[in-house]
Design a protein that fits this description.
about 30% strand; alpha+beta
């Protein structure tokens, strides 16, 4: 089960109970649904470094410089993936 919470700043998505093969797709969909200037916060059971590299290479609106990751527990990693405003997207 995926837990998704929406706020004024973006969306928080807990993917710890999502099958690994489905996680990146759900994360990409949630990120695409954001408005520019918002951020997607994900809660994962491992360091999402591969996801960071995937977003950095494939998602123009991803602000890699503002990405943050915090380990809160043994199986709790919280990462924030900010979405740039259209004028900030490098071409």
């Amino acid at each position: 089960m995926t837990t998704e919470t929406r706020s004024n700043d973006g969306t928080e998505l807990d993917v710890r109970d999502v099958p690994p093969a489905e996680r990146h797709g759900r994360i990409h969909d949630a990120f695409a649904a954001l408005d520019p200037g918002e951020a997607l916060t994900i809660v994962n059971d491992h360091d999402p470094k591969p996801l960071f590299y995937e977003f950095q290479a494939e998602v123009d609106a991803f602000d890699a410089d503002a990405y943050r990751m915090e380990r809160r527990g043994v199986n709790e990693f919280v990462a924030t993936l900010p979405k740039r405003d259209p004028g900030e997207v490098e071409g």
